[in-house]
Amino acid sequence: MTAESGAPQAAHPVSGLDDVVHQRVRLGILAIAHEARRVEFGYLRTQLDLTAGNLSQHLGVLETAGLIEVEKGYAGKRARTWITLTAAGSTALAEEMERLKQLIARVETAASGHQATSGAQSGPDLNA
Q: pTM for the complete prediction?
């Protein structure tokens, strides 16, 4: 795993993170939408502690990317907006979660190596 070995290295897990999905609010939207068949705009706004305008902007990004569907309608006489995760959104969320798991495993492995050497430098020489 050193730069000196000349062996090809797999890309760092962070390089596979999707900027559309990974942004904190959008990741939250996708995660909440994954938990339910459909989720109401007001619920997302409350859970993510956002203004309506800010939430709308993030929903627009996700909808343009094809990761969610936005449905407008009425519950009685009150206008409502519901968000549903698309198949592409479900796949994107699963891929993002897998990359995050790889990143966590890599960090934990490096931390274990640092602890095992009692403070001695370990890991790749990134200055080489």
A: 0.77
